[in-house]
Fold these 4 entries.
Entry 1:
Amino acid sequence: MSLPLFEVTGLLTEKDVDMMVLSLAFPNYAMAFGLFNKQPVIDAASSAWIFEAYGWALQNFDASLFYSETVLVRPTNEFFPGSVNSVHGMAESIFERVKVYAGISHWPTLVLDQSMCNITESQQVQIQGALRGPERIPDDSIADSQRLIIPYNPQQINNPEGMIATYAHILSHHMGQMVKIPPPGGVGSWPQATELLAVFLGFGFMFANSAYNFRGGCGSCYNPYAQRDAYLSEAEATYALALFCLLKGISNSEVTPHLKGHLRGVYRKSIKEILGKVHELDQLKQIKGE
């Protein structure tokens, strides 16, 4: 039986209902997401860091490519078409689409079940032509031993957004290592900076939607091994997605249907807050590609 990458869901998923119940039962949780008060989506320091990290990304990973080629990747069958008959086939299919949207389809990579690979040291990869974008030069003659190993967790097959986010984060980690200028916060903020870079590459939906998974309900419904390690919080990832969409001129109506129900208000509030940061937003818009 073939396995679909995504299924069409209604406006409210079971997890969204769980989140509504949780916010009613625990008002402090709801307040943390700005549902019932006027607190900002994220604190001032986190907002400033996200703006700085976007500046780092625009300066080091081709601002012109960001504006002309980067797309907002939707978690739909349109963006991840087709179906496959095996776990490994699905893992490869998802990863190849991630490479295309990240603009690095020419990178020599090898997708392996994480139980079959033992990465003990930093990997080096030779890339022909531009790091990313239309000037890439593919090289299919590279031996498997010289390819960048990309491990995947088979348990994530039933959590495609989590798998996509994991892939995008791995690729952003390697991409970040290829530039000389460290992200704001230095090594200490590396996991967050590389997640932010993945949002910059167009994968914001996946990071926002998979940053938190409610563990309520029946025990068989929650699989901890299918979840990903998140370094940006739900609110931070949604805020970073909002900044991406403002820079790219993407309307709210194109975004909110693809977010978890409880994140839609967080997203709209993020848009309003970012629009109020006129100086910071203008500074980012001044960064142009060569």
Entry 2:
Amino acid sequence: MKNMKKSPVLYLILLFVALASLAITTVSAVRATPLDESEEYTARMISSNIGVTLQEGDADKDSWKNVAWRNYDTDHWDPEKGVMGLPIFEGLDLTSGTLYEDDFRVLNSGTIDEYVRVIVYKHWLSEKDGELVKDTDLDASLIQLSYAGSSNWVKDTKYSTSEKEIWYYTKPLAAAKKATADTPASEAEVTDVLINGIKLDGEIKNKYTKDEIVTQTEDETGTTTYTTITYDYEYNGKTFKIMLEVDGVQIKHAEDAILSAWGRKGITVNGDGSLSISN
């Protein structure tokens, strides 16, 4: 029997980070100021052809910009970082439950066809010893992303939680192709829109404790009673953090590549090239 030599698994990871602080002063006056950050994270990048780019824009106007990317250019990894996306929240009432629209999709910016997935991380941060640290006592489900509803994006319900949602794009994403004698040139493919907005659950404004302090004063006219009511908002001064992790794997030997790179069993490649995910 011949020894079958497997081709190397080609994949990469791109991490896109968004922070916004929440300052609750009254129920009707809530503002947030963004702390912009965009960074990349790489793991076992052994390909000379693979690349992913996260795009932000307006799907209705077909207007897009690259906000973060990671591409291998034969000799080196492109170190460029994107500009922070996500809406500018300053001056907006985040506790109203209003959806602030912002569209995100993924572009194949490499030179080989690939499968991509997006992992959405979201949680709250609190200040401790002068640093922002993850606060597991606060409810991550109050941070809500709106998903566009494309059937080509499938949520991995088996491994998703309130703090982490895993989405697979089931169609292979083709790279740009140069024209040949037999075929015309073609542009790189993009996914359907995955995320089209962000909001905080309106219930966040009801997360408070109420304290009443009764005091009395006396003078020649008699006794006067005063009641002072204070509200301590649980999420006042907290920061929420959203991370979009985009990664791609080769379509060649895809099932082996997906298992090796993503560690996910139960993903199969159908005859038409689409992925099926067992949940």
Entry 3:
Amino acid sequence: MTYNIPLDTMCHNTESQKSRGIKVKRTKTILFGFTVLSMTFMWSGCANKAPQLPNIYYEKESNTPKLDTVNTIEVGESIYEKLGNMSYSVKLDEPAEVLKSSGNDYDYNPAWLLLGPLAPVAGAGLMYMNGENTTTAATSSGPLYLRKWNNWTVACNEKARCIVDAYNQNTFTHSTKYPNENLIELEHPIQYSKVPTFSPNSSVNSFKYQALYEGRLGSKIKISFREFTNNMAQPSFTQDVEYELESDDTALVGFKGLRIEVIKATNLDMTYKIVQDYN
């Protein structure tokens, strides 16, 4: 089996990258021929001690939608969602085919990025191939968490190989091995989305508050309030509340400090705005 491993590519916009704090490294692409057996030997020859990784990124607080904005949602959808101390995992917006480098079917961008579940050493890959054109951003131990390093957003495998969003624009543009700050430009940028994920650190008190619209019956609307804490798949608290609409089908309703101004409500959807956050 032959792998075309791009140890580096010529970085473009060198001066622009330097101005953003990116140390640019220039090397050549080298062709290596080796078997799976020799790959296993090379990786297993590394130190047994788990390498240190950048800190997982936590967002202290976020909410959707923003206060005082008019929104319309359908029955069963979220009226309001508030997150606290949440980390973020990676959702790929690119099919697996885009992640491949030019060359034969075994070449990837870079070679360690996309090795699949049959990688010789657990954790050697950063993303798994699930099928012809699908990938999962994950390591062998769980979700692929976003981390903060310098002013970059990064995602790293268990061998401290990292892909880097150097400009914090939801696009991985470079790669490196932590803590080496010499970034290598990816052959193809990789777009991704941030998925709110409960913290893997049990000492961090993550939470999610959610209000769901459950429809209208006569002159009343029903809203379900739910609270999730510390990585619980099921809500730790749920309360369904019915509210009486005014004669013009509007209302100002509340729950634990949250204030929702109902502009219009039907059995299909509700138009509203959040005028006050939870206490």
Entry 4:
Amino acid sequence: MTQNAFIRCLILILTLIAWNPSFLQSSATAQTATTGTPGTLTVMTYNLKFGSPNPPNGWPQRRPLMRELISTIAPDVFGTQEGLYGQLQDLAADLPAYQWIGMGREGGSRGEFMAVFYRTARLEPLAFDHFWLSDTPTVIGSKTWGPTLPRMVTWVKFRDRQTKREFIFVNTHFDHQVQAAREKSAQLIRQRVTAFDAKLPLLLVGDFNADAGSNKAYGILTDDKFFADTWTTARERVNEGIGTFNGFKAIQKDGGRIDWILSRGEVAADRIEIVTFSRDGQFPSDHFPVVAKLRLGTTPWP
């Protein structure tokens, strides 16, 4: 490289940094996430807030921040809640390293999705399906138990290309109004996950609309150690005590933790964080993402 070419490259790099100060930080974080401890899986749950066009918190205003945040975190797999079809297509276009699996809760592309995004270089989907949180879980769009909106689960069986291990990833969104529906949803999930291969680790993520540790739905899932809460088992917790719902207003100190990453089987949590990113007072969503660094094994469930 000639001296003039070197100087031109240096000027270009300095211009990028000056235009976007997060350039170095985002690149470094993504590299760390991708090339971290071998076998560590970066897992995220994130309620995107459905893609309304209306400012000040419309999807056009939030989309660039969402792209920046997820690119910086660089999860290997993440479950989203509330995303609409067009919104998820936008996200897929913004995140070319990922593909996604999902169905609208009213069937096809209709309604909100419990979409599962995965990094194709790291994970290979082997099977997937959906069921609804109702007395008729195989009926698309079904709702019983009193809620006004259908609620559902999307699950995917993955093979980790790095470790050669398989695991189950389950993503859901519990009702926001009816406590009895949340409790019955938890009971149904307990019942249905027992049909999965007991040798495989299982991750259950989502927006549960229930405070961890105090709501009965949480107890149904975690009693007798059926599921473990990676927030409590993690060796390191970041932003402890902050609520995962911000309402586009402010960080809620001592707020409820309603977005969870639960595990079943041999799963070790090294680190977990409630990520409170915003820019110029704008949050990407009315929830904060929860991100965990996990190591998955193959010990059978108890």
